[in-house]
Write a structure and sequence with these properties.
heterodimer; A: mainly beta; six-stranded mixed β-sheet; 11 strands; about 0% helix; globular; B: mainly beta; seven-stranded mixed β-sheet; four-stranded antiparallel β-sheet
């Protein structure tokens, strides 16, 4: 059974820091992995989607990597800003119609 | 391009009642999925509809049911509401269901409170 874990559960950093969010999954047989952002009480916004054949994806200050063999993905945020404060969720697609989500990392960037 | 819209935004119901939540998918998207997100948790998959047929279901009882219409909008119906059904219900649409090659686009959700 696929399980997705995100560490840390919460993170507070000063503005301008580069930071790394971690996501691990127990079954390496995935088709893709997607990173989302969720603001309080809101829906999810897709940030990056990495196909199983890819190693990383980049969008602006965000870079996500995928290592299927070790069951890990990282989301790197460069030069963090207060507007980056949100919960970040990773989800894996295992070919069974559904994404399996982690419980998220709550990020707070202090001005 | 119009995004995914959900209604209502908030809802309060009493245990035992029935509720219908609505979702309009993003233009050009033929696949709709519903997720339940309890407070402090990641979303849990309820079911998925593709071209008006349910083609995938998570571990939810039959009192959770759905519909997809020819315009690809969708409804989630929950009968005999229980206190544990209190959650944020998220609708997501995508261009295709196959292997998740297309990113999911989520609406802002409906916050359901069961008292």
């Amino acid at each position: 059974k696929q399980e997705v874990t995100q560490i840390p559960a919460a993170l507070s950093v000063p503005e301008g820091e580069n930071l790394v969010l971690n996501c691990s999954f127990t079954d390496s047989a995935i088709y893709n992995l997607q990173w989302f952002r969720q603001d309080p009480g809101k829906g999810l916004t897709s940030l990056l989607l990495i196909q199983s054949s890819q190693r990383e994806q980049t969008s602006g200050r965000l870079n996500a990597s995928l290592d299927k063999s070790s069951g890990r993905s990282t989301l790197y945020i460069a030069a963090s800003q207060p507007g980056d404060s949100a919960t970040y969720l990773c989800a894996v697609w295992a070919g069974t119609y559904k994404y399996i989500f982690g419980t998220g990392t709550r990020l707070k960037v202090l001005a | 391009e119009t995004g995914v819209t959900q209604s209502p935004t908030h809802l309060i119901k009493t245990r035992g009642q029935q509720v219908t939540l609505r979702c309009s998918s993003q233009s050009g998207h033929n696949t709709v999925s519903w997720y339940q997100q309890a407070l402090g948790q990641g979303p849990q998959f309820i079911f998925q509809y593709y071209r008006e047929e349910e083609n995938g279901r998570g571990n939810f009882p039959p009192r959770f049911s759905g519909l997809q219409f020819p315009n690809y909008s969708s409804e989630l119906n929950v009968n005999a509401l229980e206190l544990d059904d209190s959650a944020l219900y998220l609708c997501a649409s995508s261009v295709s269901w196959d292997r998740g090659n297309s990113p999911l686009h989520f609406g802002n959700g409906t916050r359901l409170t069961v008292t």
